[in-house]
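Narrative progress, year one. The postdoctoral researcher (J.K.) led the effort to move from monomer predictions toward full complexes, under supervision of the PI. The following entry was the first complex the group processed end to end, covering 1038 residues in total.
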Amino acid sequence: MENVDSVPARFDMTKYKLYSGRVKCFDIEAGKFIAVLNEREAKENSIFTGDRVVLSAHGKEKVAIVDLSEEVVERGEIGLFADTSSELRVHEGDKVDVRLVGVPDSIKVIRKKMDGVPMNAPEIATIVHEMMENRLSETELAAWVAAMYMKGLNSDETVALTKEIVKSGDTLKLDRKPIVDKHCAGGVAGNRTTMVLVPIMAAAGLYIPKTSSRSITSASGTADTMEVLAPVEFSIEEMRRIVLKTHGCMVWGGAINLAAADDKLIKIRHSLSLDPRGVLLASILAKKVSVGARYVVIDIPAGMGTKFEDMGSARSLAKDFLNIGSRLGLEIECLITDGTDPVGQRIGPALECYDVLEALQKFTPHDLLDKSCQLAGALLEKCGKVQKGRGYTAALELVKNGKAYEKFKEIVGEQGGNPNVKVTDLPIGTHKYVVEAQASGRVRLVDNRDISRIARAAGAPHDKGAGIILHCEQGDKVSKGDLLFEIIAESESKLDFAVKLHEDINPVRLQSVVLGKVD
Amino acid sequence: MENVDSVPARFDMTKYKLYSGRVKCFDIEAGKFIAVLNEREAKENSIFTGDRVVLSAHGKEKVAIVDLSEEVVERGEIGLFADTSSELRVHEGDKVDVRLVGVPDSIKVIRKKMDGVPMNAPEIATIVHEMMENRLSETELAAWVAAMYMKGLNSDETVALTKEIVKSGDTLKLDRKPIVDKHCAGGVAGNRTTMVLVPIMAAAGLYIPKTSSRSITSASGTADTMEVLAPVEFSIEEMRRIVLKTHGCMVWGGAINLAAADDKLIKIRHSLSLDPRGVLLASILAKKVSVGARYVVIDIPAGMGTKFEDMGSARSLAKDFLNIGSRLGLEIECLITDGTDPVGQRIGPALECYDVLEALQKFTPHDLLDKSCQLAGALLEKCGKVQKGRGYTAALELVKNGKAYEKFKEIVGEQGGNPNVKVTDLPIGTHKYVVEAQASGRVRLVDNRDISRIARAAGAPHDKGAGIILHCEQGDKVSKGDLLFEIIAESESKLDFAVKLHEDINPVRLQSVVLGKVD
């Protein structure tokens, strides 16, 4: 007997259950692997909605999630969506075997972790392996991420997780050194330092095979911005060729199968807005290990409106990076930077290219150039290329003497873009809205998040030409009617949309003596 | 700027984003509400795979999960599966509005719970409400259940959760008293006490509107067994009519919308094999409150092979039931029972009916009758129907004088079954395999879980006639060759399957001096 209230441990019927059917094709993609089984037939075989089954045909196997239907699939039929049938290479009427996946070994480990028992390396390997084989449901993965958030990961667990994430994907083998890399903890609008730093490092003779991400909720990711100038989607072989030729690249990480397990973890973390420290460290460091980097500079922006509002939490993250990094054979330099204000003057893909091209050719906006050279200098010192204390000057020199810009053009060209692109060629939107100061005063804050939201509402990053041009920064004295910023869009309707949002939030805050009035 | 590594808090664009499209129908059920959007169009509107959107048409709204496709859905089209289009009452070409659901309010509460902050009643109401509206993803629900497991629920949280589960569904209004109910914590094979207890209580003049579950992983649930004799799927109005007429019923809870939120929670708990104590209590007690019960007897089987292997854990659960129950206005009696052995002689839907009919007419199997009368007696005493200490005798008397059997026939008839069914009419399988003792000795254990597994492999509960007939119980002395049990199936292939499983596991363990040998 049993009550639905009681949740019994699942029993592994894998080796006992088996049935076969003929493929019925549905001409539509499901986005994941789904097998539609006849409801009665499945239930007779103790298979239920949401179960995972192994489908096999012609010696090929694929794990799919079960959906049941009494109507569209008859007894003896197995309904497959286009993505699943093409993956299995079967056609209408082909015979397919169905076998229950059974209870993944990970379940016990996840339960133990929930109860506070640290995972050992083989256990972490099991979870990552089963996750990569699609044997774990979203529910199971969410429980794992929640457990890692609530119980934390110790150093051993973090190191093991990093190594497994590396193993789950391809690795770049350059056979050159030194290989360097850079990472930013994020949260600052603009901040396109990668596109200035990469050519500096490459011009200095180091190898920097840089992968970047696209935006999820910000106005633009480095990959979105770089894509305005050149393609960013390459195979790992193409990436290798570009780096061997130019010493650097700026490509989209999502097109390359580096640290593959990380993509799955990020999906869960993002949907829960959960960022377990150990998983964050593993996620970032696995990518550095995957490209063979030895020296890494990490930018941790701190301050009001960033992810790290106090120095203590920024320092604690930095220490964790150094600790885990050293156990993985990485030499890491962490710079905690002032992130209260956007970096550069322009936000949005094409607009940020404008800043980058100006920084490399005309050495402005000053804050973008300065920050890029600080990071580049730290890396030059770390790998012993220049003396301690001389890094910043050396980096700036490589910009001032035009070598960084030459290298930039070389990389853009090698990635298939036009190396001679001018700022006037950039596809910047023509619909514009000007925001002026409503009063006089000193600029107290330019809010990174609000700036990103408005740029996004204006169409960024999808509309490459959309975004924001800032005409003030923290500390500026402005008078009523002075230009604070412009909203740029590719269409009137998107511009309206962004203006409406701007009226609700107020990204540029002026200092004032009276902070509020109570009647 | 942003790295995929950084997981920003999600921004609520609900009030800003909106677009419309024409319905494209897919003639297949998806099992859940899904909207297939054109990939580019959706991304321009910051809508991604897995997001929840509100679809609205003709003033009707429905929350659906987003799938993206570049091929099957063009710009301006919104692909809907059969279940979604029928729910929204739209047809090919109809106009549908799409709006992002926005970040559910529950997310913050779940995060706080993860951080160890107890939930207050309004927060629990928010989560249950959003869950019922399909606004929470499986990932989010899993995180919630994991947090409740890892951080526990205090009494206030448990009481609030129970009340919200009650509110989420219908309630039975009988306007009669006293209304009594019964629950079993599960884990024992056979154990069909409900079908003996319900007619006893009804014969005693009490009201017992009993809902039961179907099996998930056991050989049979009470609803599966009762269904051999009569239909068990009724609306709440039909249930009310049956109980008002006969004082009792034995129906399937799944067909009635009582404690609706519980079904969703059970799905998550089952897939994670997680049973947070507070959620278990809320789940069970919500059903009792929903039928208007005042007096409840709870059977907690303990002992080797059950869910409670020691008395301490069984007692702790009992105390929690009493504590939470009293705060909900329930008067609860908990009996901790010996669950080491299956109850009754037969396991499987039709086979268990055999035991029930025999118990009511011929007062055997003794253990089934005895346990049912113990539980019934406790309930008779609790509600003041008989004096303290006289419950068991009173219950047994109602069986012995035939009144319970008369009541049983009345209920079966009222539910649409044949009240005069005989044990020889039962659809018991004709394929049989006999298991004999391989040695002489005393029976040390008849394992509940293994017995259930074999019965399930033989086809139960889907094949109503499949199961096990036990010919021994714990403590019996058997000689080599004595009959231990029979496996019954409806087909030769299922029988083979069960026999194969039986050879791997060994449900009847004989006592032996040597427990193992180390070479």
